[in-house]
Amino acid sequence: MITLCGIPLSNYYNKAKLALLEKGIPFTEERVETHCHDEAVLSCSPLGKVPFIKTPHGALCESQVIVDYLEAAYPDTPRLIPADPYQAAKVRELITYVDLHLELVARELYAEAFFGGQVSDGTKKRVARVLPENIQAFKRLAKFSPYLAGDTFTMADCAGWVSLPLVAMATKAIYGEDFLVAAGVDWKPYAKLVGERPTAARVVADRKADQERSLAANRAEN
Description:
Layout: E1 2-6, H1 11-23, E2 27-31, H2 39-42, E3 52-55, E4 58-61, H3 63-73, H4 85-106, H5 110-115, H6 121-141, H7 155-175, H8 179-182, H9 187-195, H10 198-221
Parallel strand pairs: 1-2
Antiparallel strand pairs: 1-3, 3-4
Helix pairs in contact: 1-3, 1-7, 4-6, 4-7, 7-9
C-alpha cells in the first residue's frame, strides 16, 4: 500500500494524488507539514518538502518522480503517458513547462498573493518580465483540445489542472491582471472540464475539508 504524505493545500501533493486516483491505485494519506525537520520526514524527503510517498520498497520524494514511478510500477492501470515514445516525451515536455517555467516562476509571488506576506519590488519586476515570455512559450506547446496534450487526459493534466489556476490567481492578485488570460490562454474552460472528473472533484472536496478543519482548529485555539 502506498502512503501519500503532505498537505491537501499543496498543488504538488494534489498532482500526485490526482495521478493515484486516475490510475485507481489504493493509497492512504498522512498529513505532513511542508519543511518539517523531523528525522522521520527528512529520511523520506531530505529537504522536508511535500509531497513524498512511502512504498513497500521505500520512500520517494518530488512530485514528478512520484508520478513517473506510479506510471512504471502500475502498468496495468489506466495509462497517463502515451505508449509512443515521442508522444510520451511531448507530455513530459508540457509538464516541465507547467512545473518549472510557469508555476515555479509564479511561486515567488505566493507569499503576498495568498498568505499575507510581502514580495520585494525586484521580485515582482523579475516575474513580470519572465513569466509572460514563458507563458507564450507554453502556449505554443499546449493544445487544450480539450486536454493539454490533446484529446486524452494525461499526466500533463495532473500538473496543469493543479497549477495553472495558481499562476492566474497570483498574477491577478499582484498585478491586477491574469497573465494567462492576457496571453490568450483560456484556462478556465479547461479547469472546469478537468474539475468535472470524479477524481478531480475528490481532490477539491478533500482540500476544502482540510481547509475547514484548519480554520476550525485555529478558531478553537483563539
